[in-house]
Amino acid sequence: MCLRPFHGERGETRVGRTAPVAPRPPARGEVALYLVATPIGNMGDISARARETLAAVDLVASEDTRRTGLLLARLGIRKPQLSFHAFNEERSSSRILGLLREGRDVALVSDAGTPGVSDPGFSLVRQAIAAEVPVTMVPGPCALIAALVLSGLPSHAFTFRGFPPRSEGARRRFLECDAASPHTLIYYESPHRLGRLLRAAYAAFGDRPTAVCVELTKMFEQVRRGGLGELAETMEAEHVRGEVTVVIGGVPRRHGARPADPDAGGQACGDGRAAGRCGAGRSVRLSRERAPGRTGR
Question: In 3-state terms, what secondary structure has residue 151?
Fold first, then answer.
């Protein structure tokens, strides 16, 4: 599939517009792995580019073929799928790379949202880069970004930690590594373990401003804001359903204290322990650089 820039009547490239050219079969050298973001709950959030890309590629690699099949059917798209998830990652990655080398375009989608965020998609991206296969992104919905913005907590620097470990001891050690972080903290969690996460976070962090985001973009979306201790107590008694994202404020900066170095790794536990105690989940720190022309995303 070829995606070309749109040039105006005088030959200038118009920023923010793309050529009104129908997708066509890939020519030699144009094959690519397309990372396509899909809705996290509201079908109205599918972008025109995502729809066109899914219709144009040769194959869709899906975390859940049944769920993606329903999405494709609602879009009126019939496309072969290949299962790609944490349990067949190695085998499916080899097959996908083989198809890409044969000159076939592949779109990678997750269950919902942006592929490569808290799912095995990142490993396929790394392998494609190592194989010198072009990789491009079709951006769109992402629960962690939506929750961060809705939380009202500082967004200039934040740490995404993915899903905490399930066992109590591992979860406690996982959270202890974040206790000294000055950045806003973001976690994904199952609704069945939400109360345990909030209690463990309160024990590790003390009381901090917190937002619990449930079923974002869906009919019963709710964002509960308050102190971490209060939310741990009230939400444990509730039967929460749906996808949950928890956003917690970083450690407050004391008056006159020097700001923490945003580039220092393993700050909370020390570099030696960061890979062991803190490595139970996938952690990505995203900090906005104060430079002209940067949007902060």
Answer: helix
- State the residue for tokens 């700050």: 267
Cβ contact 121:128 at 8 Å? no
Closest to 47 measured CA to CA, from 64, 35, 33, 59: 35
Domain check: are 222 and 107 in the same one? Answer: no
Three-state secondary structure along 117-150? CCCCHHHHHHHHHHCCCCEEEECCCCHHHHHHHH
User: 0.85 exceeded by the pTM?
Assistant: no
The 10s digit of each residue's pLDDT in 178-214 is 999 999 999 999 999 999 999 999 999 999 999 999 9
- Residue-wise pLDDT tens digits, 126-178: 999 999 999 999 999 999 999 999 999 999 999 999 999 999 999 999 999 99
Does 296 fall in a domain?
no
Q: If residue 285 lies in a helix (H) or strand (E), which one and from where to where?
A: strand 284-287
Q: Tell me if 36 is assigned to some domain.
A: yes
23 and 130 both lie in a single domain: yes
Query: Helix, strand, or coil here: 14?
Result: strand
Verify that 100 and 164 share a domain, yes or no: no
Q: Which of 74, 104, 138 is the last residue of a domain?
A: 138
One-letter amino acid identity for 242? G
In this structure, the answer to whether residues 187 and 211 fall within a common structural domain is yes
Using CA atoms, how far residue 228 sits from 75, 98, 177, 181, 240, in Å, is 41, 48, 17, 16, 17
Which domain range does residue 87 map to? Answer: 5-138
* CATH classification at residue 253: 3.30.950.10
DSSP bridge partners of 36: 138
All residue ranges of the chain with pLDDT < 50 are: 2-29, 256, 259-277, 280-297
257 φ, ψ to 5°? -80, 150
Alpha-carbon span 56 to 282, nearest angstrom = 32
Residue 22 lies in a domain: yes
